[in-house]
Specification:
heterotrimer, A alpha+beta, B alpha/beta, C mainly alpha, A: alpha+beta, Arc Repressor Mutant, subunit A, three-stranded antiparallel beta sheet, 16 helices, C: mainly alpha, two-stranded antiparallel sheet, 2 strands, flat
Chain lengths: 499, 496, 97
């Protein structure tokens, strides 16, 4: 997919895109980072504020333990180091949605150092992007701009500020510039989102602002080691936008360079409607944030015991699970992703595989009929009346050819309804597949005898009527005939009577 | 009756109100009456509570009637105007907050109210606590009750003057580099700053976060101890407040100083202060000895760097703390074409010259290219200063020094900013180390060109968290010397 | 430490305080004077010393994730220099952050 400039594939391959992602993730805690106001999306403006988050004179911040622990767990999940000593710093600048006109953040001693996000592409191949840093800070309020007609700052005549969001705990995550395509950038974000969702540390919803991201994009000649000038891309509101915006920017930069120009270091906003990035007014001077350690807060000493205790609460990393499913169990990337994205379902799947030792069949049932039933009823598989062990039982029944796939399907429906063990149902109702050749042969003979015209049609060359005959045989056997055996015998008998 | 009541110590008032000899309402009326009579001359208060005070008094009387025992029952309280008290104008002596009404109460103030105090008004101060004379207030002039042509000291000048003029029995102050101790010395009061972190800063409008501490201004050491006991202790709303049990001080006031080693720093040569001041301090040190103390010479080699260190760290922190005064959510706003222009115009109009100077120097010290050379270096100097004190306290239990470089000076005497900064020469090093320190009256000196004797203050300081030992010793000195009672404030209404 | 004088206009811009020309000159002189005194710190050997992080030894002061009451909105907005309905109103913002 190329953007409006339509840069050709040949031209694309002349250059390498170098991309870094910077994310802000709102942490899911009951209260804000430095005060006890409710941390919740939405609500009437300026109702979730107090002296602290409104920066009234005399108010003081006190850090939220849950936010610190979320951060440490997130860091551990990305393989980061948790240094023994950390602190908060003030980042000083004036802006109306910043109540204190400084933001409490972390500068040179963040809670986590390093780490990486491992992601996978649609084709199942893996990628890895190291992280520059993950640190903890507080969110700003929200301003809306009036008078410009389109809600944008440019051309507005005044702004309105709501401080409900001010002080919400925020995780800033900055990657190293190790991503080289828009698709990988999206995959990176999806992996990030997956991990954070699974940890329960954030809702990670771009549409609610609990995940916001910017991309730094530059290009260089393929094979070059030097970094080109980067542009910072903002205003992307969905993963799809991120992909489109980065694609568009890469093309734009190639265009600029190919026509003899130079890429300017600037901030560009993604215009969703027009499908291009637009230069935002470049700042006259870089900010001097005058970082210094916040004297209202005391340093944090993170003990190794605390780190290990938090590490013990981590679930299996999504990319490790994904690898287990694809490399060890042979699931397709799509199937593996479907499971990884639904932890209770994946846990259900794992229990089923442990009991049945047949990942393929388990996948067919769980991602097939059971998921369909889940979609239709609105009840999650993991919360349904079906037990993973029962599905394993069904797998064994099918493996042992005791039931055919059609019976298996109806058993699944009955298990969904709460009828319990499939083995018990089969025994009780005599649903076992008929695999006895003699019995099957009788059914075949019955049907052939009852349908001479069809047989004649078959002999005349209309081989597709065999399907009808199979259907009749299955009907005669009340669905219990082993379909494989039926097909084989039917063909044998049809061929035989040719003689 | 009212004169005696109003000139009593807080301890005496609380005793009588608690014993129901007097009601809090009566005491409050007397205090309001005194304010009405003398505050036109003194100017200690920016806001007098009036009916608000009467309502508080009624509640105190109801609690006593209900059987509660209140250590500060009915005590008239002056609250420095940088401390929030719900429903009251809280201005910090600044135009930028001239009409701001606090919607919450500072923890330390609340604890005094819980102990039975009745707030009678909010007192004047140097704007945002920056100053040593109260002359930097943008909203009023406060005069020294002992000589109305002289300053009361600062920045807690209003509270010190209120207590000196019997317009309150306890005044709250805040001390960053000496702002409780120096006005205490100028106004013949006890001015006490506890260990950093001992009293919650929640609700104290910040000047320099790593230095600010709330403390009482009173007429007796016992009163200061009672106020301290009520205010001190961990507060979950202040992350820098220390979680450490409070040793009550009012129960451990001493009568002598036997066994106490008092360090006198060789670098604090009082001969520099002029013959009369020098003699005053020499006598004070002898009086300490007469009480049984052993005087020990100590050295504080980095004390001389205190001013330079302080005048980098405090402005740096304040430049950030005062950024929130931007015309967006409260306070003064001067309109501008765009929001940044509005900020510039608002802060230009709202802040006085001293505040602007400190914000500028603080911003500079933190700015790119200068941060290491100025701010970091100052924080390292601070470590050295604290280490000096730790070493000194190996050989002594308390340290004694002058509380101020001179007695109260006349208005406009220190027009050069740096000459004003020198007033805090003795108090600043103790602030940098976070040590508890106080000023206690130690004599009277008639300044050159002056017409009346002005009070002198002796600074006593102790190691971290040794408030009990400090107040205990100060009490012994106070009772033995009784300097405070030697002269009365020169106010017509009071002098009789 | 450089022996430069302070660029008062630049610093005032950072601090968002509009200064008159007279103030620029007066403050420049006064702050220059202060800086001269502050330069005394250059004489101190601070090489092997750590900067004071906090004068007290506290570490890890945290609070539990417990909800505390918020301020009533009218209280919050009634002292706003300019309000519009439920919002604080400010003059136009020219540059985004």
């Amino acid at each position: 997919m190329t953007a409006a400039t339509g840069v050709s594939a040949a031209l694309r391959s002349k250059y390498e895109a170098v991309i870094g992602i910077e994310c802000h993730v709102e942490l899911r805690t009951a209260t804000k980072m430095f005060c006890g106001c409710v941390n919740e999306f939405g609500g009437e403006p300026n109702t979730k504020v107090c002296p602290v988050c409104l920066a009234l004179p005399g108010a003081l911040p006190v850090p939220n333990r849950a936010a610190i622990e979320h951060m440490i767990r997130a860091g551990l999940a990305f393989g980061a180091e948790i240094p023994a000593f950390s602190k908060f710093d003030r980042k000083n600048y004036f802006y109306p949605d910043m109540p204190k006109d400084y933001q409490i953040s972390q500068y040179d001693m963040p809670l986590t150092q390093g780490g990486a996000v491992t992601y996978w592409r649609e084709d199942g191949t893996m990628g890895r992007c190291a992280l520059e840093r993950i640190h903890l800070e507080e969110d700003t309020g929200k301003s809306t701009h009036a008078g410009s007609g389109d809600g944008r700052i440019a051309g507005s005549s005044y702004s309105l500020v709501d401080f409900n969001r001010a002080g919400v705990p925020l995780m800033e995550c900055v990657s190293k510039p190790e991503i080289h395509s828009a698709q990988d950038a999206v995959a990176f974000l999806e992996a990030l989102k997956r991990t954070l969702l699974q940890l329960g540390v954030s809702d990670v919803k771009m549409e609610e602002g609990s995940l916001r991201c910017d991309a730094n994009v530059s290009i260089r000649l393929a094979g070059s080691a030097e970094l080109g000038t980067k542009a910072e891309i903002k205003n992307m509101n969905s993963f799809r936008s991120v992909g489109r915006a980065i694609e568009s920017e890469i093309d734009r930069q190639i265009d600029v360079v190919e026509s003899g120009g130079r890429v300017v270091q600037e901030t560009r906003g993604w215009d969703e409607a027009r499908g291009v990035t637009i230069s935002m007014r470049s700042k006259e001077q870089a900010h001097d944030y005058r970082y210094f350690p916040d004297p209202d807060l005391v340093p944090m000493e993170v003990s190794r015991e605390r780190v290990e205790a938090l590490r013990a609460t981590l679930p299996e990393a999504p990319w490790i699970r994904f690898t287990r499913y694809t490399a060890e169990m042979g699931l397709s990337p799509t199937q593996a992703t479907q499971l990884v994205d639904n932890v209770p379902l994946a846990d259900f799947f794992d229990r089923c595989v442990t009991a049945s030792k047949n990942p393929q069949q388990a996948t067919n049932f769980i991602l097939g009929d059971l998921s369909r039933l889940a979609n239709e009823s609105g009840v999650q598989v993991a919360e349904s009346k079906v037990r993973a062990e029962d599905v394993a039982e069904l797998v064994a029944l099918v493996e042992g050819k005791i039931v055919n796939s059609k019976i298996a399907k109806s058993l699944l429906e009955r298990m969904w309804a709460g009828e319990g063990s499939p083995k018990a149902i089969v025994e009780r109702e005599g649903l076992a597949q008929t695999s006895d050749p003699g019995a099957v042969a009788r059914f075949v003979d019955e049907v052939l005898a009852a349908n001479p015209n069809v047989v004649a049609d078959f002999r005349a060359g209309k081989t597709n009527v065999a399907g009808f005959l199979v259907g009749q045989i299955m009907k005669a056997s009340r669905g219990k005939a082993d379909p494989e055996l039926v097909n084989r015998m039917l063909r044998e008998k049809l061929a035989a009577s040719d003689e | 009756m009212s004169k005696e009541t109003i000139e009593s110590s807080a301890a005496a008032i609380a005793g009588r109100v608690g014993a129901r000899e007097l009601s809090a309402a009566e005491v409050t009326e007397a205090a309001l009456g005194r304010i009405a009579a003398s505050d036109d001359a003194v100017g200690a208060y920016l806001t007098v509570l009036g009916d608000g005070a009467r309502e508080h008094a009624l509640r105190v009387d109801a609690r006593i009637a209900g059987g509660e025992s209140l250590p500060l029952a009915g005590v008239p309280l002056a609250v420095k105007d940088n401390m929030c008290l719900t429903g009251t104008r809280t201005t910090c002596g600044s135009k930028i907050l001239e009409n701001w009404i606090a919607p919450y109460t500072a923890t330390a103030v609340q604890r005094l109210l819980d102990a039975g105090c009745v707030p009678v008004g909010k007192t004047n101060m140097d704007e945002f606590a920056m100053g040593s004379s109260c002359e930097n207030s943008a909203l009023g002039v406060t005069r020294n009750p002992y000589d109305l042509s002289r300053v009361p000291g600062g920045s807690s000048g209003g509270s010190a003057a209120a207590v000196a003029a019997f317009e309150a029995a306890i005044g709250t102050g805040s001390d960053t580099g000496g702002s409780i101790r120096e006005p205490g010395a100028f106004c013949n009061a006890i001015g006490f700053k506890p260990t950093y972190g001992r009293i919650s800063r929640y609700g104290l409008i910040a000047f320099a976060s790593s230095l600010d501490q709330i403390g009482p201004l009173t007429r007796t050491v016992e009163d200061a101890a009672l106020a301290y006991d009520a205010m001190a202790g961990f507060d979950p709303m202040d992350a820098t407040s220390v979680d450490r049990p409070v040793e009550t001080a009012a129960t451990h006031l001493r009568r002598d100083l036997k066994g106490v080693r008092i360090g006198i720093a060789r670098e604090f040569d009082t001969a520099k202060l002029g013959a009369e001041s020098h003699a005053c301090y020499a006598r004070a040190y002898r009086d300490l000895e007469a009480l049984g103390a052993e005087l020990v010479e100590i050295s504080l080699p980095t004390a001389d760097y205190g001013l330079a260190t302080y005048y980098l760290i405090a402005p740096a922190e304040c430049s950030s703390n005062l950024a929130r005064f931007d015309g967006v959510r409260y306070g003064l706003r001067v309109e501008g074409d765009d929001v940044q222009a509005m900020y510039e115009a608002t802060r230009a109009a709202g802040f006085g010259a001293e505040v602007k100077r400190r914000i500028l120097i603080g911003t500079y010290a933190l700015s790119s290219g200068y941060y290491d050379a100025y701010y970091v270096r100052a924080q390292k100097a601070r470590t050295l200063i604290a280490a000096d004190f730790a070493k000194a306290f190996e050989t002594c239990d308390l340290i004694a020094s002058p509380a101020a470089s001179s007695p109260a000076f006349e208005f406009n005497a220190k027009s050069d900013p740096y000459s004003m900064y020198l007033m805090d020469y003795y108090t600043i090093p103790f602030s940098l180390a976070g040590l508890p320190a106080l000023s206690v009256p130690c004599g009277w000196v008639t300044p050159e060109g002056g017409s009346s004797p002005m009070p002198m203050g002796l600074q006593l300081a102790a190691p971290l968290f040794e408030e009990r030992a400090l107040l205990g010793a100060a009490h012994a000195y106070e009772v033995a010397t009784s300097h405070a009672t030697r002269h009365r404030p020169r106010l017509a209404e009071v002098a009789k | 430490m450089a022996s430069d004088s302070i660029d008062v206009r630049y610093v005032a811009k950072l601090a968002r305080i509009a200064l008159t020309d007279e103030e620029v000159e007066r403050f420049g002189a006064q702050l220059g004077d202060l800086l001269e005194h502050v330069r005394a710190l250059e004489k101190l050997d601070t090489g092997s010393v750590a900067a004071t992080a906090q004068v007290i030894a506290s570490r890890n002061v945290e609070r539990g994730d417990d909800v505390r009451g918020c301020l009533d909105r009218e209280t919050v907005l009634e002292q706003a220099p300019q309000r519009q309905g439920a919002f604080f109103r400010v003059p136009r913002i020219i540059a985004a952050e």
